[in-house]
C-alpha cells in the first residue's frame, strides 16, 4: 500500500469541506470512540463517508459501493482508495488534514483501511456497530453544510419550475424526466431518484417514467445529491382547472403535512411523530390505512431519509436538523426538504416563481396550472 501526499496542480474542483465543520465532526466521532472504548472507527458507506469528509465524492457508479474507506483514530484521519482513483481523490476530493493511501484496484479497501493509523492491530469499531451513534452525529447540520444544502435545494426547486413550465399534455414522462435529469447534472448534482407519472398512471406512488404522455396532469419527483447532501422535492402540474375532488384532496394532504410540521419540534421523538402522522390521515379524511401505502419520509441530509420514520424509530429531533416528510393519498402527494431553525421550519426547496398557498403560516407548493 502506498501513501499519496500531494494533489497535482491541474485540479479543477476542490473539496467543499469546511475546516471548522470538519473539526466538529471529528470531535463527534472521537466522542463515539471514547464511549465505546475502541481505538479507531472504520467508515465504509456513502452516507458516513460523505458526511465525515464534508462533501467529498466517493462514488463512481451510483449503484455501486464507495471507492474509498476511512479510518478515524485519535491521531488522525486515513482515507484509503484504489490506485486508479487516488489521483482524482487527491486533486479534487481530499479535505485538508486527511492522509490518503492507495491499494491496487483489485485490493480490499476495508482490510487496507483497518491496517493504517496509529494503532495497527488496535481495537476497531465497525460502522455498522456505531450506526445509531453516527446517525445522531449527523443530525445537526453545521453552518457550511447548511449553506451548501440550501443552495442545492434552491437549485432543484428552480429546475422543477423551469422544466415543468415547459411541459405540455403531449410531453411524455420520459421526455420530462430526461429534461429534469439534464438540468440536475448541469447543476453539478447526481439524480438519485427521478419519478414521473401522467394522468394515466396517477395511481402509482413510485412511478418510474414511461413513454406515456402526461395528459391532463402530472407529478414529478427529484432526489438530487451534491457534495453528499440529498435534496428531495415533489411538484405537480396540470393543464386544466382540476376537478373539485382533486382540489379538495390537495388541500387535505397539505393539512396532513402541516400537522406533521407542527409535530417536528426539538425534543420530539420520531416514533411519536409517526403516531401523529397516522392520526393526521384520519383527521383529514384520508382513512386510517393511507399511511401504509407509501413511506412517510423522515430526517434528511446525507441520505434520502436518515432514517425513514416508523414506529421503531426513536431518534430525538434536534435544532439544525433537516427533514423531508412526504405524505400522500390517492392522486396527491406533497414533499419538500426543510430545516429546523431557531425560528421554526424553513423550507429549503423553494422557488418564488412557483405558485404557493399559505398553510398554517407557511407557504406550500400549489399545483402549477398551464
Describe the structure.
Helix content is 33%, strand content 24%. It has 370 residues and is an alpha+beta fold. The protein has two domains: 2-138, 3-Layer(aba) Sandwich (Creatine Amidinohydrolase, Chain A, domain 1), CATH 3.40.350; 143-369, Alpha-Beta Complex (Creatine Amidinohydrolase). The strands form five sheets. Strands 1-5-4-3-2-6 form a six-stranded mixed beta sheet. Strand 8 (217-226) and strand 9 form a beta hairpin. Helix 8 runs antiparallel to helix 9 (270-283). The N and C termini lie far apart (60 Å).
Lay out the secondary structure.
Elements: E1 2-4, H1 19-36, E2 40-43, H2 46-52, E3 68-73, E4 76-82, H3 83-93, E5 98-103, H4 109-114, E6 124-126, H5 131-139, H6 143-164, H7 173-186, E7 190-198, E8 217-226, E9 229-238, H8 244-263, H9 270-283, E10 297-300, E11 322-325, E12 328-329, E13 332-333, E14 336-341, E15 344-347, E16 356-359, E17 362-365, E18 368-369
Parallel strand pairs: 2-6, 4-5, 9-18
Antiparallel strand pairs: 1-5, 2-3, 3-4, 7-8, 8-9, 10-11, 11-14, 12-13, 14-15, 16-17
Helix pairs in contact: 1-5, 6-7, 8-9
Amino acid at each position: 500500500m502506498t501513501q499519496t501526499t500531494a494533489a497535482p496542480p491541474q485540479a479543477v474542483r476542490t473539496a467543499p469541506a469546511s475546516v471548522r465543520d470538519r473539526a466538529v465532526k471529528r470531535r463527534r466521532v472521537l466522542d463515539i470512540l471514547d464511549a465505546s472504548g475502541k481505538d479507531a472507527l472504520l467508515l465504509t458507506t456513502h452516507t458516513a463517508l460523505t458526511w465525515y469528509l464534508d462533501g467529498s465524492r466517493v462514488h463512481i457508479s451510483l449503484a455501486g459501493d464507495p471507492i474509498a474507506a476511512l479510518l478515524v483514530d485519535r491521531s488522525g484521519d486515513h482515507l484509503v482508495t484504489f490506485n486508479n482513483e487516488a489521483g482524482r481523490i487527491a486533486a479534487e476530493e481530499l479535505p485538508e488534514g486527511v492522509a490518503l493511501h492507495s491499494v491496487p484496484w483489485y485490493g480490499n479497501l476495508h482490510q487496507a483501511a483497518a491496517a493504517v493509523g496509529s494503532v495497527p492491530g488496535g481495537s476497531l469499531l465497525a460502522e455498522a456497530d456505531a450506526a445509531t451513534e453516527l446517525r445522531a452525529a449527523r443530525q445537526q447540520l453545521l453552518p457550511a453544510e447548511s449553506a451548501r444544502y440550501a443552495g442545492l435545494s434552491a437549485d432543484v426547486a428552480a429546475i422543477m419550475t423551469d422544466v415543468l413550465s415547459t411541459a405540455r399534455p403531449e410531453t411524455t414522462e420520459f421526455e420530462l424526466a430526461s429534461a429534469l435529469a439534464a438540468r440536475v447534472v448541469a447543476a453539478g448534482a447526481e439524480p438519485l431518484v427521478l419519478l414521473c407519472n401522467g394522468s394515466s398512471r396517477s395511481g402509482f406512488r413510485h412511478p418510474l417514467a414511461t413513454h406515456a404522455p402526461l395528459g391532463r396532469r402530472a407529478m414529478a419527483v427529484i432526489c438530487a445529491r451534491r457534495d453528499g447532501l440529498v435534496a428531495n422535492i415533489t411538484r405537480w402540474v396540470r393543464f386544466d382547472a382540476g376537478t373539485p375532488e382533486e382540489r379538495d384532496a390537495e388541500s387535505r394532504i397539505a393539512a396532513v403535512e402541516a400537522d406533521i410540521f407542527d409535530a417536528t419540534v426539538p425534543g420530539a421523538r420520531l416514533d411519536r411523530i409517526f403516531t401523529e402522522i397516522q392520526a393526521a390521515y384520519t383527521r383529514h379524511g384520508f382513512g386510517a390505512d393511507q399511511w401504509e401505502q407509501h413511506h412517510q419520509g423522515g430526517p434528511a441530509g446525507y441520505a434520502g431519509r436518515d432514517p425513514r420514520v416508523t414506529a421503531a424509530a426513536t431518534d430525538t429531533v434536534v435544532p439544525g436538523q433537516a427533514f423531508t416528510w412526504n405524505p400522500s393519498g390517492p392522486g396527491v402527494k406533497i414533499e419538500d426538504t426543510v430545516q429546523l431553525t431557531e425560528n421554526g421550519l424553513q423550507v429549503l426547496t423553494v422557488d418564488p416563481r412557483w405558485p404557493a398557498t399559505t398553510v398554517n403560516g407557511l407557504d406550500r407548493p400549489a399545483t402549477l396550472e398551464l
